[in-house]
Design goal:
The structure is a homotetramer. The first copy, chain A, has about 325 residues and is of the alpha/beta class.
Chain lengths: ~325, ~325, ~325, ~325
């Protein structure tokens, strides 16, 4: 941590900063430049941030040097954190494909979808039973009935199930049915939900928040790991920008960044990431080429009758076709699909 | 609602859109231009959005015309929604000032703060007992013990109490102690929390999300009102942009916009809105001049020892001084403080 | 400047950084922490940035400490830089009001506008003779003929004239007619234009770019000052964000920030800053309360017939009315108008 | 174009809108809903926007339906606009690779780079002779001397040359030496420069502005085409967002969007798009997989000694290595490199 003093800071103010640092056990390096004084503090960042140094008189800014997360760090675990999902591995050579509708709407819809995405090569079935919606008047999901339909689809096809949990209280219920517990973008910093998931026994798929920096995203993963659940899968799903042609701007550079900073696997959701069906195939290819460990794609037997997100859902036929293309791209970067 | 067809859309595709609209009871106006067909649909927007028209073949885009919120609308209630707080009125002529530390840290800290902000003219005491923190290793609040300290401070000073609730389950507990229940920016779209608050008997202070549009913010208010709690106070606290000199960019234009679209009172939090202490006084003045119904200001007896947000907190002396200045600005726009 | 090394940086890499720093005359402070090495370099930032340290092996990041601008700095000139405009002072007690249409359209339009804004108390007449337009098919301005009309209006009313210059080549022409040379937001980093203006004898009004940080804005001012023209007036006009209710998000916190970092006067353009007429009055008040040294407001005798920006222009009557309100707000912060 | 009236708009106001539309030759469709009136206007968007309808009383908003650009449109030219560059084709099956340093620094540097990037398979040599720099104190380029060095490198290697032009006046000079004239991100809306380039005989490489929407980017291309120069190559180079791990956020979804809306070729610059060397290889792969027609990559023999942008430049060895990888990805999407 570097403490930069104001150009006009007085000796008394510099001393106050240093005495506080010493009091909390920090090592100190003082550097008195011509125009200003800079203090280097050696010690734990977490503790450092709680010292309130920025609020002291004469301090211009405090620049953190070390990272605020620990367990999530590549330094904490050099090799990739590979997550086992009923025998399949997320974070290994194979790119995991999660496909299915935005929301569970009926048993027929889910069975048809499950069988066809399975046949096309998907590994995991997605479908929301609890739906966080911008409007209180919109369809909010089939809740437990939806979870039961998902479980039936798993039984029939062998696909694993990923579904969203939106409330700390529902974690035990969803954990009973799902193989992967999804945290939606709007809940990325719902810290009570993260703490509850930190005690869960199932892997957590953590979507990046709409306006979350990569550091905040990794801090949210740290919440889950800090409680003992080390099975965290990150999911890039676009960030909010000024561009209006797409629902969000898919930030594919986050993939190599996350892989450098952290040992966690990262997948990409180009359906939410763009919000536009015709962009999904090229963004799937780009995600694989960029190094993603998996994809999450919205697929619906009748997108025009979907209860939500129809405009960004592929038809079953479209999904089958792009899977062929994706296999070739995966091979070109030494991955399988 | 306007449905814009692709330039090359076929008659069959246009018919499919119209038949679906008629099926759901919409009135239709067809407009066949030289280069493309546009369909106007007259009816309820909420229902319209669930028709999945954007996912139909040949549809380029769907442009909503009417607003997605109802109860929140200025059309629903022409006069301002004035909220009573132990006899004080939020949304009337008087500008309500809420002041206090980021977090409740001890009884001494709160009592000292409460008495001095009361003396300076504040109406409401703020202080967090449950703290949503980016890092799992940071101070998370004194919880119920903190609520008890707040209640004591109210007893002694007569100030009303506003404090954050971060979890649907804690709503009954917080409601027992607080006069106003605060929803933090990171929870603005925590829909389960909003639904729980829609059943509460106390006013809700709803902070704007970091990357929430004004429409999404009003939709979150609609959640609370749709369950029967009409006492919603909006709070602008800055949005996330590319600028790094401030923690957020305070969007003061949201004040007149909200006042035009809605009947709800709106206050401003320049402490979080800027994250920098020396910017707070001028942003308080600007907020009042722009028409805000209140202010929420972080004040701490020793900002440099604050458990959180010290750099943006005013000292008690600074707070006292700016209150004098604010009274003059308020008078210049025919308000009191 | 602080050079933060990678956690695994080798001694050889640290030595390479230090030897390069020494070679260019920098003082060095070495700080070897448990997990990483940090090097403090004392010397000129401008030179430091050209050393290419970030590209050296083992360097994680380079954190600048001192500011990249010099002449613009508050440290360079402690007192406010007050600019004289035909006897009026920008940056002093009086708030300067610049008003007029987006574009010069005809002599009648400008004369009518000039006389009425003068009567209402404006100090400067604005009007574009060269218009930078997003579309090549839109009205591009009356060019020199427009400048002549502006000069006539000055002659008749005594108002000073501010008008935009969009091209390095036109600087001498515009300087012949105008009292203040305006740089539009899209040209804030048109460095050849800035260099040409650095040799001009007239004050320059420098609008903040749509996505310019405050630091980049001040660097653009530094360009003008570095060539010898010290008469720079900054103009906040909103930045691009995700919000769609307004054309831009007016960043009023930039006013106190600029005033702390720099000695330059800063004015606000709420017409472009919001793009919506009914938001202009409250944003004018807020700008004054926040400490702005002036306002630039679009006013048109018939906004619905304006060649550009009609929706954000006030009528002459509306302008007259708000001037009364603004005088009261100005007085409440010890300014005149 | 759709004109949405206020809920409370009066008949007189609706009539005023319609009479103005009729006066300018527009076809009209009137739709009177329960809560508001909507008017559809059929005719030319360019003309429509200059009617000032948004400024009329009673008008809530004007929604454009048709696109504001014409020549750039896919509808204007169904097949891809393939640009010939000394016999090579941009926009065809082959992905064009442009490589070289940020700035021309010396003859030795350029010759070494040119020969090695040629050997690795690059088609075009990049290098700036005129450098737009944020700071007036930074290296501004070798100007004409730099252009001469570029021409020598072309002579020796047969590589085509792309270099930036920053000023309308310098277009003839740069055109004399370069094969492709580059417009930098900061100049994307320097309309005088665009108009000058619209008369040039050489292809123009148009970088997307830092905060430009895709529509604005295409409008800038329309400027160049409207003057008669149809040889425009678009270049995505990242947009400004809140994320700080990268210099910009590379928006790869712009590739399939541009290819749908327009017939112009589009290439990607991942060096500026990320600003971080270790992200360049994965973003090159992703760009190709997403459908880009080319890449522009910064390569420098000694990045740590580069006059600018060293941290994002690849070494010659790194460039050679990634070219091998890129060939495989290109083949997987049926392209060559």
């Amino acid at each position: 941590m570097i403490i930069v003093m104001d150009p006009g800071a007085q000796k008394k103010q510099v001393d106050e900063v240093m005495s506080r640092l010493k009091q909390f056990g920090f090592g100190i390096h003082l550097s008195e430049g011509e125009s200003r004084t800079v203090i280097g503090a050696i010690g734990d960042r977490t503790k450092a941030l709680s010292l309130g140094l920025e609020a002291l008189e004469g301090v211009e800014k405090v620049v953190p040097i070390s990272k605020p997360y620990k367990l999530v760090c590549r330094e904490f675990k050099q090799e990739n954190n590979i997550i086992d999902l009923n025998g399949a591995k997320i974070g290994g050579e194979k790119i995991m494909v999660m496909a299915g509708p935005c929301a569970v709407e009926s048993e027929e819809q889910m069975m048809e979808t499950a069988e066809m995405v399975k046949a096309a090569g998907a590994d995991v079935l997605r479908g929301g039973a609890f739906k966080p919606r911008t409007s209180p008047y919109a369809f909010q999901g089939m809740e437990e009935e939806g979870l039961k339909i998902l479980a039936k689809a798993r039984e029939k096809t062998g696909l694993s199930i990923v579904t969203e949990v939106v409330n700390p209280q529902s974690v035990p219920l969803v954990e009973q049915y799902a193989d992967v517990l999804q945290v939606g973008a709007r809940n990325m910093q719902n810290f009570h939900l993260l703490l509850e998931l930190s005690k869960a026994k199932k892997p957590v798929l953590l979507k990046r928040g709409l306006s979350a920096t990569i550091e905040e995203w990794l801090m949210a993963a740290e919440y889950i790991m800090s409680g003992g659940n080390y099975q965290v899968i990150l999911c890039e799903r676009g960030i909010r920008t000024f561009e209006t042609q797409t629902r969000n701007t898919l930030d594919l550079s986050s993939i190599p960044i996350v892989k450098q900073l952290s040992h966690l696997p990262v997948i990409v959701d180009p359906s939410h990431g763009t919000g536009v069906r015709h962009l999904v195939p090229s963004m799937c290819k780009a995600a694989i080429a960029a190094g993603a460990d998996g994809l999450m794609v919205e697929v619906h037997p009748n997108p025009e009758k979907a209860f939500c997100d129809g405009p960004q859902s592929l038809t079953l036929l479209q999904f089958k076709e792009i899977m062929e293309d994706l296999r070739r791209v995966a091979a070109s970067v030494d991955r399988t699909l």
